[in-house]
């Protein structure tokens, strides 16, 4: 599997011959000015919730790429009303078999509202199972005991977790989350974009290492093998 970090919480994961784009907030992010969204060409766009810092580029990307939107019912319906009908809705605890493998929508503790004030349903995360491996993208969330259930059900190759604190878990809670879900490798996201979520990256790496977890912080635009 290959993961390209696109800034904030946006990642592009190439697995089983498919390109999965999560939470595209790219063009409004000055830190990601070097990323050309027209070059991404995802097969699927997965949205964890409706906040602007996760959906800003979703409509444009969905329209030019023809990618299938995967999200909760409310988000898929909202985009459907804007002419994007190639969507598949999920709800918490539900999963579906897609061409790339299986996606399950799992709990997150966070709010969800579109920039225009529309209701965005309940925030969630995804567990993705493919022929190449299994991974967890938590979306924005607090630490929650529900994460322990994932370790009972899955053997994760890696997890994508927020580490910026203030709006989500910080490094301390995220390292515990990694331990609870059974992930030995974590890609940290949702940090440094805004002043309240600027972190000490070396300290964050040590926090994870103290729990036996490797925290990966790729540069924006960098692709890593997993």
Automatic annotation (TrEMBL):
One of its GO terms (molecular function) is hydrolase activity. This is UPF0173 metal-dependent hydrolase KBB96_06165. The lineage of its organism: Bacteria, Pseudomonadati, Verrucomicrobiota, Verrucomicrobiia, Verrucomicrobiales. PANTHER family: UPF0173 METAL-DEPENDENT HYDROLASE MJ1163 (PTHR43546:SF3), UPF0173 METAL-DEPENDENT HYDROLASE MJ1163-RELATED (PTHR43546). Belongs to the UPF0173 family. Keywords: Hydrolase. Pfam families: Lactamase_B_3. Transmembrane segments: none annotated. Residues 7-190 form the Metallo-beta-lactamase domain.
């Amino acid at each position: 599997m290959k993961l390209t970090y696109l800034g904030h919480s946006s990642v592009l994961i190439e697995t089983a011959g498919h390109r999965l784009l999560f939470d595209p907030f790219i063009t409004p992010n000055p830190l990601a000015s070097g990323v050309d969204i027209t070059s991404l060409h995802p097969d699927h766009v997965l949205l964890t919730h409706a906040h602007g810092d996760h959906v800003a580029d979703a409509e444009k990307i969905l329209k030019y790429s023809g990618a299938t939107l995967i999200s909760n019912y409310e988000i898929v319906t909202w985009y459907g009303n804007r002419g994007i009908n190639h969507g598949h809705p999920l709800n918490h605890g539900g999963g579906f078999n897609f061409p790339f493998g299986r996606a399950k929508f799992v709990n997150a503790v966070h709010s969800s509202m579109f920039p225009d004030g529309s209701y965005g349903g309940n925030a969630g995360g995804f567990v993705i199972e493919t022929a190449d491996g299994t991974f967890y993208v938590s979306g924005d969330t607090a630490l929650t005991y529900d994460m322990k259930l994932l370790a009972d059900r899955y053997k994760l190759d890696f997890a994508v977790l927020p580490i910026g604190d203030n709006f989500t878990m910080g490094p301390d809670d995220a390292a515990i989350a990694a331990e609870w879900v059974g992930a030995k490798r974590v890609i940290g996201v949702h940090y440094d974009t805004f002043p309240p979520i600027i972190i000490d990256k070396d300290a964050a790496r040590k926090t994870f290492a103290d729990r036996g977890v490797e925290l990966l912080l790729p540069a924006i635009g960098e692709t890593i093998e997993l």
